[in-house]
Amino acid sequence: MESLILFGMVLTLLFLGVPVGISLGLSSIFFVAFISQDSLSSIAITLFGTGTHYTLLAIPFFVLASAFMSTGGVAKRLIDFAIASVGHFRGGLAMASVLACMMFAALSGSSPATVVAIGSIAIVGMRQVGYSKEFAAGIIANAGTLGILIPPSIVMVVYAAATDVSVGRMFLAGVIPGLMAGLMLMLAIYVVARKKNLPAGVWHGVVHWLHAAKEAGWGLFLVVIIMGGIYGGVFTPTEAAIVAAIYSMLVAIFIYRDMGPLQDSPWIVESDSQQAQVGFRATVYGVSFFLVSSILTFFVVGTSENGFEPGNWMFIIVFSLLSCGAYLKWRILPEHSKSQALMQALSIWGRNLSLIVRNFIPGVFGGQARLTILEGTKTTVMLMFIIANALLFAHTLSAERIPQMITEWMLGIGFNWFTFLIAVNILLLIGGQFMEPSGLLVIVAPVVFPIAMALGIDPIHLGIIMVVNMEIGMITPPIGLNLFVTSGITGMSLSRVVKAALPFMLVLMVFLVIVTYIPVISTWLPYLIMGPEIIVR
Fold it and tell me: Could you give the percent of the chain with pLDDT greater than 90?
C-alpha cells in the first residue's frame, strides 16, 4: 500500500506539470515525513552523498569537455574526416553524418550535444546536395542518440553510480554495441540511398583522407587519452574526466584556436616564407609524434610512480627526429637547405609561443572560455539536481524494501531471464517517453538490478540494455530531448521531426532486441580486458 502511495504522489505531481526532479524529491520528502518510519536525517545524508559521490564527480568534467568540444570547429573537422572516409558511397553524406556523430559521441558523452554540434552543420550540407529536410533531420536525431552509448557516456556513469558497478567495464561494454548501432544506421541509409538514387560524393584519394585525419586528430586523440588512461591504469574514470576537460579547453583555445583571444591568429601567416612554413610543419610532425608516442607508451608500459624506462625515451626521440627529417626530405625544395628551413621555422614557433604565453590567462579565464564554463555549469546543475532527487527517491524505495518485494513477486510468479528482460524493455521504453534518461535510470536501476542478479543476468549486460533503451527514449515523444533539439536547429515542427525519425528508430528497435538477447555483444570486450563484474550479495 505504501509503495502505491509513493508512486501515486510522483505521478500526480508529474501530471500537474511539476518538473521531474522536484516531483521525485517532494514525493520522497513527504513520504518519509508523514508515512515512512525512516528518519528525516536520511534525506540530508542522501543529498549530501550525491554531491560527494566519487563516480558522479565525473559528470561535471565530462559536461565541460563536451562544452569545449561543441564550441568552434571540432565538429566541422570531424564531418570533413567522415566525408573523406565514406562520402564516396551512395548516400555518403548521410552516412558521413552518422560517422561524425559516432566520433563526436566519443568526445562528448552527451546525446543532445552531439545533435547540436553535428546536426547544425550536417543538415545544411545534406540539404545543399539534394537530401530532403525530413530525411536529414531523421538521420541526425537517431545518430545523435549514440552520444550516450559510445564511451565515455554520462548515462553510463550514472548507471555505475546507481548500481556500484565498474565505470571502466561499462565504457568497454559500450564500444562494440556503439559501433554496431552506427553501422546498422549507415547500412539502412545505404539501402534507402540505392532505392531513392541519392547522390554519391567523389573519392579524393588517400592524401586527402590523411589530411582530413590530421585536421581532426587533436580532437580524436581525446578518445585515446580517456580510454588509454583508464585501461592503462594511469587514472580513474573520474580523473579521466578532469583530464578530458583540461585537454578540450587547451585544444579549443590554443591549438585549434576556434575560440578565445587567439581566434584570429593562425599559426602560419602569409608573410612566412615557404621554406619557413615547410620547416615549421616538419617540426610540428616531430613534436606531435613525440607527444603522442610518449603518452601512448606511458599508458602501455609506464607507472604513475616511475614513468617508463630511459630506453623508451630514446626510441621515441629517434623516431620523432626521423619523422621530422622524412617530411623535410619529402617537401623541401632542392635549392633550399634543410637546416635553413628549421632555423627559419624558429621564428614561427617563437611568435606563436609568445602569443600563447601572453594570452594564456585571458584565454583560460576570460571571454568565450568563461561563457563556455558557465554553460557547462548550468547543464551540470540541471543534471545533478535531477540525479540527486532521483537518488533520494531510490533511497526511499530501498528503505521500504520495495525492490526486494518486487523481486520476490516476480520470481514467485515464474519470471525467467527471458521474460524479465522483455518486462524491463517495456518499462524503460514507456518511462523514456516521459523522463530524462539519467533520472529514469537512477530510479529504475535499483529496482531491476537485484532481480537481474537473482536471475543470473550479467550487470554490465543489463547496463547496456538500459542505455540502449535510454537512446530510444531520446527520440520518443513527448519528452524526447533529441526531437526538441532537432526541431530547434531545423525549424521543423515537432510532429514533422517525429515522423522523420520514425523509420530509423525502427533500426534502433531491432538493435535493442539483438543487444538484449545476445549478451556477448556487450560483455566480450570488458571480460577480455578487465574480467567479469563481481557482485557481492
Answer: 20
